[in-house]
Amino acid sequence: MADRQQLAAWLQAVANGDESAFQKLYAATSPQLYALLLRMLRSPERAQDALQDAYVRIWQKADTYSPERGAPLTWLLSIARYRALDLLRRRQPEVAMPEEPDRVATLLEDEQSLSPLQENENQQSLAAVNACLKNLSDEQRDSVLLAYYEGLTHQELAERFDAPLGTVKSWIRRGLLRLRDCLTEGSA
Q1: Residues 82 and 129 grouped into a single domain
Q2: What is the pTM of this model?
Q3: Has residue 39 been placed in a domain?
Q4: Burial of residue 152 (number of CB atoms within 10 Å: 0-12, 13-18, 19+)
Q5: At a CB cut-off of 8 Å and minimum separation 6, what does 28 contact?
């Protein structure tokens, strides 16, 4: 996968209407976005539709990306995530808590094969995320995973945990802040 600077450069070029940069951005990032969408939507057809919609939105909104506010891949994943949430809200499916012991390890699985370098980078990233997730409280960890990888809304989480909405929002916010701090410390 391309590095952060390359993704940011492609996004800037896409904002200026560069179709070639858009193709490169798509090739470099679509496996990660598709994996997230497939995990959230649990249907290859719906995930493909959402992926297409997400990239249309990326093409239209590339000029709103700001490197100061976060990593390019994070911005791209959030667009895909919001598209999946829109679809989930329309259908209101029953979303169950994953039963795998290591939920994060399956998040980036994809049908496409990766190069050994990409696979190594993914494994290192997953190991860092797994290590940081262990530093969170159970409520924070479960709230973050269910919200971002299963697509549950804050209200749905409050109902699932039988907790006040404000408490659930705090768990997620504090969990994300701790994850950010942990991952930043690990990369320094």
Answers
A1: no
A2: 0.54
A3: yes
A4: buried
A5: 1, 2, 6, 7, 10
